[in-house]
């Protein structure tokens, strides 16, 4: 099976994100998929992405993982609901509650659940776990870029 | 004048953060300082830290800048208030509202303002601007690591 990640279906012009863009050669190339009614993204962080203490991820990276996966989940939710191609979602608001340190060098699982879809807005609930232990949870308000957006 | 950044006063054991640790050779080495009653951190992002569109920062990086500067602000606020050395603050909760795209290759200014200090908890209000334009705002709840913390 060669299921395409959500991020690998973005138009080229939207695929440069350091977190999840397939065209960003320096980036992390996060990949998100459906898992039933939820979405999932798995990622193992290099030890260089340490927090203050070695062996644990810095907070900004945890926010990054939840942000990119949240945007991808919103994209997928919209595409499935309206049966037409979504453009790309950007973050209007992100809230992260940190529950436990997240280790580097261990596969992390970020899960998304659709809370609300309303016009161009999608609200996604998110968790980040390591080996089944909850490390962070939160939610993101994502907004779709209008189809005929003019670049300024 | 050779004012020491807050992060350059952390104990070695807490100085490995990818965002702001002086001992993380791969990291961004963010530096935060007092500016009157507020704190400030200036950073120019390499274009590789792009969002979906080239030329603008990915959301996770914006959260990272606010998170590291928030933790440093909490540390400095605590140290100044109690007149004793603070250990290190970790993030309990981070909220970011994204107001406008933040450019890469332009000096960004992250500012912190102390909202509340209560025991080990410090709440910091944060903004991120580029050339005077507000790009993001939010707040962080930071919690100090106990002094005699045992590593497990």
From TrEMBL, chains A, B:
InterPro entries: HotDog_dom_sf (IPR029069), THEM4/THEM5_acyl-CoA_thioest (IPR052365), Thioestr_dom (IPR006683). Keywords: Apoptosis, Cell membrane, Cell projection, Cytoplasm, Fatty acid metabolism, Hydrolase, Lipid metabolism, Membrane, Transit peptide. GO terms for cellular component: cytoplasm; membrane. Residues 55-131 form the Thioesterase domain. It is found in: Cell projection, Ruffle membrane; Cytoplasm; Membrane. It comes from the Bacteria. It is a peripheral membrane protein. GO terms for molecular function: thiolester hydrolase activity. Its EC number is 3.1.2.2. It catalyses: octanoyl-CoA + H2O = octanoate + CoA + H(+); tetradecanoyl-CoA + H2O = tetradecanoate + CoA + H(+); (5Z,8Z,11Z,14Z)-eicosatetraenoyl-CoA + H2O = (5Z,8Z,11Z,14Z)-eicosatetraenoate + CoA + H(+); (9Z)-octadecenoyl-CoA + H2O = (9Z)-octadecenoate + CoA + H(+). One of its GO terms (biological process) is fatty acid metabolic process. Its main location: membrane. Belongs to the THEM4/THEM5 thioesterase family. This is Acyl-coenzyme A thioesterase THEM4.
């Amino acid at each position: 099976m060669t299921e395409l990640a959500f991020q690998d279906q973005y138009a080229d012009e939207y695929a440069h994100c350091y977190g999840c863009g397939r065209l960003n050669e320096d980036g992390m190339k996060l990949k998100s998929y459906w898992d039933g009614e939820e979405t999932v993204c798995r990622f193992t962080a290099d030890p260089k992405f340490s927090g203050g203490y070695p062996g644990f991820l810095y907070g900004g990276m945890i926010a990054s993982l939840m942000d990119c996966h949240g945007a991808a989940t919103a994209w997928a939710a919209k595409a499935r609901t309206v049966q037409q191609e979504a453009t790309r979602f950007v973050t209007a608001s992100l809230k992260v509650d940190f529950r436990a340190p997240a280790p580097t060098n261990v596969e992390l699982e970020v899960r998304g659940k659709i809370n609300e879809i309303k016009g161009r807005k999608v609200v996604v609930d998110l968790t980040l776990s390591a080996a089944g232990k909850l490390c962070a949870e939160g939610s993101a308000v994502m907004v779709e870029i209008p189809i005929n957006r003019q670049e300024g």
